[in-house]
Amino acid sequence: MFKRARIAANSAVRRSTFAKRILTALLAVSLLPAVAGSVEARDPLLAYGARIVGDDARSRIVIDFDREPRFSVHYIANPERIVIDLPATAFGFPAKDLAARGLFKDIRYGKMDEESARIVLTTAGPVKLALAKVQADEAGKGHRLVLDAEMIDKQAFAELVKTQSWSDQSEAAQTTSAIPAPEKTAPGDFVIAVDAGHGGIDTGAIGVDTKTEEKQVTLAFAKALTERLNKEPGIKAFLTREDDEFLSLSQRVLIARQNHAGLFISLHADTLKQKDIRGATVYTISDKASDKLAADLAERENLSDQIAGKETVAEPPEVADILLDLTRRETQAFSISLAESVLNSFKDQVGTINNPHRHAGFRVLQAPDVPSILLELGFLSNAEDEKLLLDETWRGKIVGLLTDAVKRYRAAVIANGG
């Protein structure tokens, strides 16, 4: 299989330059970077208390802040969500104090970037905020945000979505003026984007024993891998996110492309209902999933933007068709080669699941001209995997093996004229 992939990769090299030129022109409009204005850093708000009451007809949320918060409210359909945007906020209350109930089937909150935070209320049906206001706390401790939600019909909710105004245009734009980049890149350097899955409001999976959040695990591995790769001559690696920040799936892809990455490696540590399943898995992109496990995982990972209250912006159909075609023709063989190189490194060194190379329609792997893999380091739903994922020595071992895999992949590409 590895030999077949190398042959396909060699053929793809001869076509890649022309294809990339076509692709760059086609995507120029849809992927133009937005210029982000500078915002003065300020101390974050502190949300120190929260409570929720109500039933399936009307529910109230109250959140206590140390000072008066500015906020805005928006509605998103499919599924129905209410989004409350805030300035930078530290959420200091126990998660159980804002556990979903009444009209809400899921409540998420957290950091979006250095200047903003967000609360996303996923509702059980069409809902609107009959009241959304800030009032001073009677005890003089600060201010409280009061949100009264009530059930409405589908037509009324659709009208809310249609007529609302998103005053913050950054929601619809990709902020790319301050994207991470490799340092001191020289001509001929092999550039690698290391993507720590999840982040900010999107915590990812939760450890079965320690309750560690997946976003913390992936960032620790991503930092260690980037540091290790940057010790190799001719290799320059960079992080798509450097701290606990939310990035949409399309932003992750765009960051890799704008930095002219030759590889994209997305790190994850998911959970499964089957607690006994453990080990690493490598995924590549495909419009048809290799199996139900891959399909279910891709579906969950692709919900990342919904969790954060992001609207999915569809690409123009003609561009989407070309993207799909070029992904298959120009990068899939390279992605497969990288996946197999990783698994060869792991052989007899790292436990893997059965059939460890799988594929599905992961949106984060859709960079049309960047070979990409999604690596499940292990499963936080398995107690033994969780211990390893939190072990610094094991992390170092994985990082070393991944570096070896990248070096072999690079050598094969260069030998084939890449």
Which CATH class of the largest domain applies here? Alpha Beta
As a percent range, the share of helical residues equals: 25-40%
What is the rounded Rg? 22 Å
CATH fold field value of the largest domain: Aminopeptidase
Largest sheet: 6 strands, mixed
> Order of SSEs, N→C?
HEEEEEEEEEHEHEHEEHHHEEHH
Protein name: N-acetylmuramoyl-L-alanine amidase
Enzyme class: hydrolase
EC number: 3.5.1.28
Keywords: Hydrolase, Signal
Would you mind describing this structure in some detail?
This protein is α/β, with parallel strands linked by helices and 418 residues long. It folds into 2 domains: 45-159, Immunoglobulin-like (Sandwich); 190-416, Aminopeptidase (3-Layer(aba) Sandwich), CATH 3.40.630. The protein contains 9 helices and 15 strands. The strands form 3 sheets. It has a 6-stranded mixed beta sheet, with helices on both faces. It comes from Rhizobium leguminosarum bv. trifolii WSM2297. Residues 1-41 form the signal peptide. It catalyses: Hydrolyzes the link between N-acetylmuramoyl residues and L-amino acid residues in certain cell-wall glycopeptides.
